[in-house]
Amino acid sequence: MRVDYLDRLEVSASALAAYRQRMNAIAENLANAQTTRTPEGGPYRRQEVVFEAGAVPAAGDAGGGRGAVESALSGPRSVRARVVADTTTPFTEIYDPGHPDADGNGIVRYPNVNPVTEMVNLVLAARAYEANVAALQAEKRMQELSLGIGRA
Amino acid sequence: MIRQILFGSRSLALLKGGLDAGAARIRVTAENIAHAETPGYTPREVRFEELLGRARAAGEVPLARSHGAHLTAGSASGEIPRPRIVARAGRDGAEGADIEREMVALQKNEIQFRALSQMLADRYRQLREVIRPS
How many folded domains does chain B comprise? Predict the structure, then answer.
């Protein structure tokens, strides 16, 4: 017997992991908002986490066949998170000749991190995380209901 | 015979269809929420009530009878349609799912599922009452 009702939780679980990763990246960005030195040289570069749909799991249970539900679409897809460096936002340049990392003109290059943007993204990610927890709990409650149908 | 009593009745088949639709809907809604920020993802939805209505209008599904003396309408052989998962038709060109809308769908679906499973459980409870020797 294929325990397909347990697989259903996997999509929500992958989304939780993806948002967790995004929140980690935001924490890292905020922590390094003033970091002007990195092993690669230059100031810290902001990390961004982008999402993409994962591969369709083998034997997608929603596909055609004689199941309880019909669907012409591919089976459920998980969420995959990928960390990319933000190369489009320019570094913040501040004139501070006394700084050890100032260049010949007295300009210090600070990371391209805007704390306000990061905080907004953090709130959004936390909300989305909660929404996925709610979906997970709803699925669980409904499965419990199904198990209780035959009970006296 | 027993099979017919336990699973053959129209209303039970309808309840089963409704529960299947509810189970598919929670899965689809959870997926839409999970992919709220995935670029290129098209939200999905489950069609059932609409298919049922159409089948009923075409006379394929007999009308429900709340009383044994009611007349039946339509043929008894018609099959109850299976819930179908479809891509949601793109509205206002927005990509991804609207999370508030999905959360409402989640709540609504759960209440409906609760009601249907309650009805099914009641039905089986009645059968058990009848079977039990007094």
Answer: 1
